[in-house]
Structure formats: structure tokens, C-alpha cells
Amino acid sequence: GKTFKKPRRPYEKERLDAELKLVGEYGLRCKRELWRVQYALSRIRNAARELLTLDEKNERRIFEGDALLRRMNQYGLLDESQNKLDYVLALTVENFLERRLQTLVFKSGMAKSIHHARVLIRQRHI
Hints:
The protein is mainly α and 126 residues long. The chain is 63% helix and 0% strand. Keywords: Ribonucleoprotein, Ribosomal protein, RNA-binding, rRNA-binding. InterPro entries: Ribosomal_uS4, Ribosomal_uS4_CS, Ribosomal_uS4_euk/arc, Ribosomal_uS4_N, S4_RNA-bd, S4_RNA-bd_sf. GO terms for molecular function: rRNA binding; structural constituent of ribosome.
């Protein structure tokens, strides 16, 4: 299926500035990489939103909700204590970007800069 969604309006100053800031901060190659994360997040939040409309005791809500929370746990986006669907809705793009290998390599001090981290990964040193 689709992996990203283009913004509705191509030249929104506010959005462009916000995107540029994130792209710079997390060393993304192009805005499509950012849109990809935003799309993944929006799908997860939509799923959570839909499950929240169902009754608490609904089998589908319990089953799919647990699966969704387990997945967020594995991705390291939520910890064990945050096992409610409301926490899924509170997730941000930054939560996702913080979990990228590039960011983790830079934060751990293996690379001098976020861009250096990307180069190291690309050249298979990491």
C-alpha cells in the first residue's frame, strides 16, 4: 500500500518551517522521509481512535487494542505502564523519529553529528 501521504497544500509557510526544523534536527534526507513517519503515526492513531469508539468489553477492541499496544511497546514508543489506548493518541512524530537508528547512534555518542550517524549507517560501519 501507500507508505506516505503528500501534504494537502504544497506551500504552507507554517508547515514548511516545521518540516524543515524536523528534517534538520533528525537528519532526514528528504521531506518524504518525514511524511512517511507522519503517515505511519496517523494510521496508528486512526486505529486507536476507531477502537476507542467501541465498547470497553467489545472483543475486537480488547483483541486489536492489546495487539496495537504490544506493537507500540516493541517499537519502544510506549512503556509498560502506558497500556491504554489514550496514550497511543498522545504519540507524536518526534516519538517516532527518536527511535530511528540514526538518532540513537548520534545520541549515544558514536557519531559526531546526526549527519555523520547517517553516513556511518550507510557505509555499514553500524
